UniProtKB/TrEMBL annotation:
Domain of life: Bacteria
Pfam families: Abhydrolase_6 (PF12697)
GO molecular function: hydrolase activity
AB hydrolase-1 domain location: 21-245
Top-level taxonomy: Bacteria, Pseudomonadati, Pseudomonadota, Hydrogenophilia, Hydrogenophilales
Keywords for the protein's UniProt record, in alphabetical order: Hydrolase
Descriptive protein name: Alpha/beta fold hydrolase
InterPro entries: AB_hydrolase_1, AB_hydrolase_fold, Carboxylesterase_BioH
């Protein structure tokens, strides 16, 4: 079976002169996490806004066992998706999606990357050590969730959000989430590190969250140093900033760094 990829789209009513935005989700979720707030907001600012569900996530299907899906498979999905867009997109990747975006830049010359609370180019080892030391119950619950064992996951929810969404929204987000590929997680442990020498030249904008317990600010700073840039740590946010109350502040910060890209397009 050919992989079917879900692409969500919000067209701008008053387009700006800028590349499209292709949003890449993190582990356990799908393109729906961008549809809630970010896609319509960026479309309202004039951006042609798209969100991809990687295979096995959201509405994207695969005939392969979930745990065999690799980061390279997810990169293939990004390259296929960009061919369906009207122009070369800026990649906006969150968490695992940020790692996929970095690997995609090894294979294709995208105009720019925006990394949000992204897995660092060197992998997840620093993040997992931080969770083991500071939020061990959240790490345990993350492993249970990966294994498909659905529980309330109270510690994991507290690690994902600094400010909890309204209860009906939170319940909907958890119901829409699902296990992640063990192969992809192992890849991010260091078996598929980003090779800077292979990456095409492009601006890389690095954002983190002040209260992120999954990818803490020091890991975000490491990513910024890798790209020779400065990390922007957004105050009063947790890891899942696109779904937290106050998400507009994060969206505005991203739009601010995209303005030069829009003007250069």
């Amino acid at each position: 079976m050919t992989e079917h990829l879900e692409l969500l789209h919000e067209a701008p009513s008053h387009p700006v002169n800028a590349p499209p935005l292709l949003f890449l989700h993190g582990a356990y979720v799908g393109a729906w996490c961008w549809q809630q707030h970010f896609l319509p907001w960026f479309a309202a600012q004039g951006y042609d806004a798209w969100a991809l569900s990687l295979r096995g996530h959201g509405g994207s299907r695969t005939d392969r066992p979930r745990d065999t899906l690799s980061i390279d498979d997810y990169v293939d999905d990004v390259l296929r998706a960009q061919e369906r867009l009207p122009a070369e997109p800026i990649l906006v990747g969150h968490s695992m999606g940020g790692f996929v975006a970095q690997k995609a830049l090894e294979r294709h010359p995208f105009p720019a990357l925006v990394l949000l609370c992204s897995v660092p180019p060197t992998g997840l080892s620093g993040s997992l050590l931080h969770m083991l030391l500071h939020t061990p119950m959240a790490l345990l619950e993350m492993n249970l969730f990966t294994a498909g064992k659905r529980k309330p996951h109270r510690s994991l929810v507290k690690a994902l959000f600094h400010h909890l969404p309204p209860e009906p929204d939170l319940a909907r987000y958890l119901a829409a989430s699902g296990p992640e590929s063990l192969r992809a997680i192992w890849d991010m442990m260091g078996f598929a590190r980003v090779d800077r020498a292979k990456q095409h030249p492009a601006p890389v904008y690095v954002f983190g969250a002040e209260h992120d317990k999954i990818i803490p600010p020091d890991q975000v700073e490491n990513t910024a140093r890798f790209y020779g840039t400065t990390a922007r740590i957004l105050p009063d946010f947790g890891h899942t900033l696109m779904l937290e109350p106050g998400w507009e502040r994060a969206a505005r910060a991203i739009a601010q760094v995209l303005q030069p890209a829009a003007q250069a397009a």
